[in-house]
Amino acid sequence: MSEAGGGRGFGSSVPQRAPWSLVAATAALCLVSATSVWTAGASPMSREEKQKLGNQVLEMFDHAYGNYMEHAYPADELMPLTCRGRVRGQEPSRGDVDDALGKFSLTLIDSLDTLVVLNKTKEFEDAVRKVLRDVNLDNDVVVSVFETNIRVLGGLLGGHSLAIMLKEKGEYMQWYNDELLQMAKQLGYKLLPAFNTTSGLPYPRINLKFGIRKPEARTGTETDTCTACAGTLILEFAALSRFTGATIFEEYARKALDFLWEKRQRSSNLVGVTINIHTGDWVRKDSGVGAGIDSYYEYLLKAYVLLGDDSFLERFNTHYDAIMRYISQPPLLLDVHIHKPMLNARTWMDALLAFFPGLQVLKGDIRPAIETHEMLYQVIKKHNFLPEAFTTDFRVHWAQHPLRPEFAESTYFLYKATGDPYYLEVGKTLIENLNKYARVPCGFAAMKDVRTGSHEDRMDSFFLAEMFKYLYLLFADKEDVIFDIEDYIFTTEAHLLPLWLSTTNQRISKKNTTSEYTELDDSNFDWTCPNTQILFPNDPLYAQSIREPLKNVVDKSCPRGIIRVREESFRSGAKPPLRARDFMATNPEHLEILKKMGVSLIHLKDGRVQLVQHAIQAASSIDAEDGLRFMQEMIELSSQQQKEQQLPPRAVQIVSHPFFGRVVLTAGPAQFGLDLSKHKETRGFVASSKPYNGCSELTNPEAVTGKIALIQRGQCMFAEKARNIQNAGAIGGIVIDDNEGSSSDTAPLFQMAGDGKDTDDITIPMLFLFSKEGSIILDAIREYEEVEVLLSDKAKDRDPEMENEEQPSSENDSQNQSAEQIASSSQEVDLVDQESPEESSLNSHPESLSPADTDNAASISPSEQNSNPTENHETTSLDGECTDLDNQLQEQSETEEDSNPNVSWGKKVQPIDSILADWNEDIEAFEMMEKDEL
Ligand code: DMJ
Questions:
Q1: Which of 114, 150, 495 to mutate to test the pocket of ligand 1 (most atoms within 8 A of CB)?
Q2: What is the pLDDT of residues 784-816, one digit of tens each?
Q3: 147 lines ligand 1 (CB under 6 A)
Q4: Cα–Cα distance between 469 and 467 in angstroms, integer?
Q5: Residues 471-500: pLDDT tens digits?
Q6: Measuring CA to CA, which residue among 167, 163, 117 is closest to residue 482?
Q7: Percent helix, strand and coil across the chain, each rounded to 5?
Q8: pTM score, two decimals?
Q9: Would you say the CB of residue 492 lies under 6 angstroms from ligand 1?
Q10: Rounded distance, CA 386 to CA 351, Å?
Q11: Does residue 384 surpass a pLDDT of 90?
C-alpha cells in the first residue's frame, strides 16, 4: 500500500517544536525523555539510521494494514497465511481468543490512532469514514467486555482524540463532528449491563445485541472474571464520561476498582488472578504482574495520571510495594500465592509481564525495569521472539508468540527514560526478527512455535494498535510526529487519551479511602518521583552498568536454580527443605523428610507410587507447609515434564517463489522414517501421489521420484503410505488430513504411529499436516505449479539469499543448507536432548492428582524413584556459571530481610486448619491455572 498524500514519513520537514519536555503529565509521572542527557556508552545511532528504521516501520505497517484492508476488511482480523478475513462463526472456534471478535471491523478500529501517529493522516481520514459507514455495534455476538473496552471503545476514543486534534489544526478532519465519540457512547451503553452484579465487578462477556439477561444473550451465567478484566476499564470509561458529560461510565469503572481494592489480600496487599464476581472470593490465588492481572496495576497508576485522583496513586503504591517485596526477584518476576507470598506459585513466567518494565519507568523505578527488560531481551535473542511462557531457567514453556507488543512498549519507555542508544539497537533487532520470521506475503503471521519458526494463521489487531506505534515512536524525533505525544497517555492497547481530560467534567464523587491504605515506609517513596538520582543518574552509563552483570543471565542460567527458596532457613543453619526435583524414593533420608512433612507413599497396583499429604500428620505447621510446597512442586514438575515429553512439532517451509521461506506450516512428526531432529532437513519439490491415499503401489512413480510426495490421510496405515511412496522414489512424504477444515490452530498435533511392525525399512522423512495447512500447499501448486518445500525441525532463517534460490536445489545445495540448518539449530537440539524423556527419569511422570478433602496427592512411576540424571548433569555442568546468580540471590535475600523485618517465612506459624483450608483452595487454583489460556 502506498502512502497517500498527507502522510509524512521520517525526515520530512514539519515545523520545529519546543524541545522535549521533561515530564509528560502530573507530578508523579516519571516518563522522561533523556535523549539529550546521553553522552557515552553504546554507540549513538545517527539520525539517518533512525530515519531509515522509522521508514522501515512505516513500510511494515503498510504491509500489515494494506493486506488487512485489501483481503480481510470488513472482517475483524486478517488471516495472513490464507490471506482472508477471520469472521467469527466461519472459522473453527479458538475458544476465549475469539471473544475479541465482535464483527465490528476490529483491526480497523484498533488501527485508527496508529495511522495518525505514523503520519498517515489521509488514511486516517478514510479509515474514520469507513468506520462511520460500515461498522455495526449491534451484532448478535458474545464478546469479551475487557477486549471490547480496550480495543474497540479505546480505539474509538483514541480516534476521536486525534480527530479533534487534527480538526483544530485546521487542515484535516474539518467535517468531523464527534461521530466516533457518539459510537463510543453507544458502545459504552452496550457494555453497561455487564456491571449489573452486586459487587459491581462486570460479567466477563456480553452479547452486543441482547446484553446479559435475555435468554438470547447466551451469556450471563459466568461467575468468575480475571482481575485485569474487571480492573482495566477506568481510562476508557472515565474518558468517555469526561468527553460526553455522562458520568455513569466513570462511576461504574470506579466501583469495580473500589471492590477489587477492598478484596486485596490484606496481609500481602496482593490480588489474585481470578475473582468471583458475585461473592468477591478469589478463585485463583496466584498473583503476578502478567496474564490476568497486568493492566489492573497499569490502570491504577495511569488513572492517577489521567484523572489526578490521589487514591489511585496510593493504591498503586501499596500494590507496587507488595510486588517489589514478593514478586520481583530481579531480573525475574515470579508469581506467588496471595496469602503465602513467599511461596512461588510457578516456575515460569508469561510474555504479558513484558509490559512491566515500561510501567516501572512510569513509576520512576528504573533499575529493576532495566534488569527485567535485559533478561527478556536475552530470551528473545535466544528464540527470536518472546515465547508465551518460559521457565525460570529460560526454556520454552508455551511456544507460541502472537506478535505481542509488550516488549517493544517497554523498550520505548526505557529509551525515553535513559536515552541509552542500546534500546534503539534492541528495537532494530525486533524489526529484523519480525521481517525475517513473521512476515508473510499477506501480512505478518503469529508464531505458532518459536522453536520451529512455524506460523499460525493469525494477525491480532493489537499488532497494529501497539507494535507499530511503539516501534515508530522509538526511532522518531519530535518533528517526526505531527502532534505532541506527551500531551496524551497510552491506554493498555496503546490508544491515546488527552491529558487535558483530567480537568474536564470532574463530577464524579470520589470515595475517601485514604485511611485504608497501608502505611508505607520511606523507602517506598525512594522509588517514586521526583528522584532524579535514580532517574537521571549523572553517570550516562547508568543503564549499561545495571545490564552488565546480567549479560549472560539466560545462557548461563542454572536450570531451575534461581527460584527463591527459604533464605532465612539457610542463614539460620537449618537444612534447606527437600525440593521435589531432588527427591529420590529410594533415599531413606528423603523418606524420613517426607514423613515429617506428612507426606506418605502409597504403592499402587500398576507399580506407580502415589504421594499423599495429610498436613495434620506433619511434625509441625512449618513441616506441613514444607510438605505443601513439596507436593505443589511435584505437581508442577510433573505437568511441566509431561509437556516436555510431547514431541516438538516439525516445520514444512515453502521455499519457492513467491514464498521464499516466509510461510512455515506446523507439522506433526512420525514415529518412523528419518528423524528430522537428528538429521539434516529434506528439501524438494512436491508432487501428489496417485492414488492420492498412497495405499497401494503408486501409478505415477515418474512424478514423485526425487520429490516430496503428498498423500491423503486415511484408508491404510501411515507406514504403508510411507513405504509406497518410498518405493516410487520419493525423498519424503507429507500426509494431509482428510478431515476437511482441521487445523493445527484448533486440534492438537500428534505423531504418526508405525504399524506395529519393524519400520526400520522406512528411511525417508514423513510429516503430517492438518487439512488447513495442507491446503496452503495444494493451493500453491494450483497457482504456481512448482512448489518447493523444506522439511525440518526448525524453519531455516529467511535471509534475502533465499529469495535468490529459485533454482531447484541440487543435492549439494541441500547438503550445504543442511549443515547450516544443523548449526543454527544445534542449541535447540541440545536443549531438547537435555530434556528428553530418556535422560530424565522425572519426565515420565504420570500425574495423578486426587484433591480429596484434606489430602494432597501426586503419583510417580517406578522409574522416577531413581535420581534424576538430567538434573544432576545440568547442575554439575553449569555449577560454575551459577555462582553469580546465587550470589545475587543471596545479596537480594539479605537486602530483603534488612528492608522487610516482618517477613520471616520460615518462622511463621500457621494453624494446621488454616493450612488445610488454604491447600484445598490452592490445589483447585493450581489445576485451573494449568488449564488457563493466556
Ligand atoms: C493487548 O491487547 C493489551 O496490551 C492487553 O492489556 C494485554 N495484551 C494485549 C497484547 O499482548
A1: 150
A2: 989 999 999 888 876 565 655 544 443 333 333
A3: no
A4: 6
A5: 999 999 999 999 999 999 999 999 999 999
A6: 117
A7: 45, 10, 40
A8: 0.69
A9: yes
A10: 6
A11: yes
